[in-house]
Design a protein that fits this description.
Blueprint (H helix, E strand, L loop, with lengths): L4 E6 L16 E2 L2 E2 H11 L4 E6 L3 H7 L6 E5 L6 H6 L2 H4 L5 E6 L7 H14 L3 E7 L8 E4 L5 E5 L13 E10 H10 L13 H8 L4 E4 L13 H14 L10
Parallel strand pairs: 1-4, 1-6, 4-5, 7-11
Antiparallel strand pairs: 2-3, 6-10, 7-10, 8-9
Helix pairs in contact: 6-7
Amino acid sequence: MDTPLGVVLAAGLGTRMKSDLPKVLVPVLGRPMIDYVLDALQQAAIRRVIVVVGYRAELVEGHLAGREGVSFVLQSERLGTGHAVKMAQPLLARHQGPVVVVAGDSPLLQASSVQALLSHFAQRRPACLLGTLHKADPRGLGRIVRDEQGAFVGIVEEKDATPVQRQITEVNMSTYVFNAADLCWALDHLRNDNRQREYYLTDCPGLLKAAGRVVDALPILQSCEALSINTPEELQWVEAEMHRLGYGPFSGASS
């Protein structure tokens, strides 16, 4: 398989964390949460990673300066996740092969999940592969809609979901593998005709599907990977889960 490239979204603020740090630098068990994400990618044999920085970018760049294979692109305006990835498009356009896109605030990303996604991608060669999971309480998350044959149809956000769609337990966790050329095509076709006037990465799989390209969704993420950190309370839950899984203050992501 072609050498995979990682893209880590790390431009956000830590406002709800009651911190003036960039969100990805908020400590989890004594380490900035982005360290666990990069450890997981490294353990999955992803040697080159583009980190999309924004708020207080110099702090993130300074913290990661010693990491081999890490480069940075700046999202100077926060215009959505699709816009964030578009900032890396000049680098993506020169890459051939899979691009793994993950959130920098997901410290429980597992190397084994990334490896499983890359393995499926190598076999099927889709334009896009989503890593998903089944969640007993899917409230607030985008649902994965499939057809009668089980093939991916699209992502429906909860606010747009019908009562039937809200019963779906398979959810999108913002963990993707794209073919680089297909990702660049989708980024060029993104629109911001929504209330927030933002460009959403979640629209890319649907654009590719509508263009007749293969899009797969694989529900292989582990339950711990559904835990995100947006508040101090959620940070406590994640740290408790990491203790349960055997993470230490200076350990990498488990696999």
